[in-house]
Amino acid sequence: MENKMFCYQCEETAGCTGCTQMGVCGKKPDVAAMQDLLIYVTKGLSAVTTALRVQGGEVSSAINHLISLNLFITITNANFDKEAITARIRATLDAKRELLAQVRNGQMLPEAAHWDGDEATFEAKAAMVGVLSTENEDIRSLRELITYGLKGLSAYSKHANVLLEEDTEVDAFLQRALSATLDDKLSADDLVALTLETGKYGVSGMALLDKANTQAYGNPEITKVSIGVGSRPGILISGHDLRDLEMLLQQTQGTGVDVYTHSEMLPAHYYPAFKKYSNFVGNYGNAWWKQKEEFESFNGPILMTTNCIVPPKDSYKDRLYTTGAAGFPGCKHISGVVGEEKDFSEIIEQAKRCAAPTEIETGEIIGGFAHNQVLALADQVVGAVKSGAIKKFVVMAGCDGRSKSRNYYTDFAKALPKDAVILTAGCAKYKYNKLDLGDIGGIPRVLDAGQCNDSYSLAVIALKLKEVFGLEDINDLPIVYNIAWYEQKAVIVLLALLHLGVKNIHLGPTLPAFLSPNVAKVLVENFGIAGIGTVEDDLKLFFDEADVTDAVTGDMIMGEILRKYPETAPALMECGMHCLGCPSSQMETLADACMVHGLNVNDVLKAVNDKVNR
């Protein structure tokens, strides 16, 4: 079957090889084509800006912002609006045309720097410049790995920019690296080096955003967040842009409309500055991929500030608004550039006419464990490690997604030894942040640092622990990495960790399709990158055998097992124990009960522990 498109930038790409007829995300071939062309012309513009810098010229912040937003728009699930993307192509060509005239010896620049055309030529050109236009599999793999990392970096830069923070060195590198992906003279070794340099600037980009967020809104602090609903109408805000949230909260004061966060916006509740808003009431729902059901039951309007958008149902499409990098055809887009006040009055007026959200859950979840908060607890944490109360930290940051294979992360969290603490950031947290995993001496066993970019906090925490324990190598810490990835912001987080020297990262639920066998081999041999296996096998890999203990053991009393783990009753009956209600049988140990029934105790233990872990 002939390819109508080709995209393999996300974890859910079809068959773990590439989407060729339609994106699993819902992206249509014509939109994929315009995204390919937008990337191509943005690389061309970057070649021009890089040449200008080399000759001593200046590049304006407006051009830097144009390039960053172009990349951000092409991140998975961010923008499905062909007209909006086409408009970006035209604006990029206009900017490139003006700057190219200022470059000396411009004829030496790559073809992308010179290409120009009107909208009638866009489709034909897009077909020539997509991912597969690079024929060498390994060069293609490295170019895409770099490009996807730069997409993630662009997102973090854009969020810092709207808070009026800039790092011109990050912008200059991003453009230089984009330009380098056009250079056919660069070898695979050159591109590997550039990949690691991308990780270096990934750290800088996350540090910039951390600075921007904390200067504007204070350092995140331990916070309990309601997951229930109130009686007033509400607006649901999703995505990552805290400045958009701030403007929405300011404009909803005194309107009788509440504001709820969704998915990656949950960590906004941890920032002190947002706690002054009495109508900022809680978090509604779960990770992005459940939005079709949750947006419907929310009843009020939804504001998507960034990814992840799932193509909406007609039942709520007229309530879905986009802004910033986000976009979907048929949904109202709220405009506004860096430094501008956005007008959310239309959303607020619609909310007033809507019913209050339908309750889908109750209770609270806790978070706010970014680096400043955790370092404030350093003595308590270090003491717990030294005493043996905490044996290991497990970094489970990253993304959530639709695939049932991601239930692995829920099962893994449940099965962790009770002396292990999860460090998380990003929407991967929704696989386990509502489980009752308890605490260790008052330290919750799930420490949520925040959004995906707050993986920076996890790196800062690790580096501080390395210093406190007097270690020379970050890999000597009692920390293991079991990271779930989905889109390109996770790619820049991975590259940042590699730059910091972190090794033996496990990445799942599948390894990226854009890694060629040879490129994957380089990552495995030099950094110990690996995939995931079964929960049981990975626990044995990450922990000493002695640390991995079954919840149910043969010497436990049957009555105790049934009280503590009622979910084991069906498994016990399936094994052949049909007298669970008998008072005398509940006084026996499991081993004795197996002997009475002529059952193999090891088979029964496996069955019940599988049920508990599940």
From TrEMBL:
This is Hydroxylamine reductase. Its cofactor is hybrid [4Fe-2O-2S] cluster; [4Fe-4S] cluster. HAMAP family: Hydroxylam_reduct. Belongs to the HCP family. It comes from the Bacteria. Catalyzes the reduction of hydroxylamine to form NH(3) and H(2)O. The lineage of its organism: Bacteria, Bacillati, Bacillota, Clostridia, Lachnospirales. Residues 553-604 form the DUF1858 domain. Transmembrane segments: none annotated. One of its GO terms (cellular component) is cytoplasm. Hybrid [4Fe-2O-2S] cluster binds at residues 240, 264, 308, 399, 427, 452, 487, 489. It catalyses: A + NH4(+) + H2O = hydroxylamine + AH2 + H(+). Its EC number is 1.7.99.1. It is found in: Cytoplasm. The modification Cysteine persulfide is found at residue 399. It comes from Anaerotignum neopropionicum. Binds 1 hybrid [4Fe-2O-2S] cluster. The keyword Methyltransferase does not apply. The keyword Iron applies.
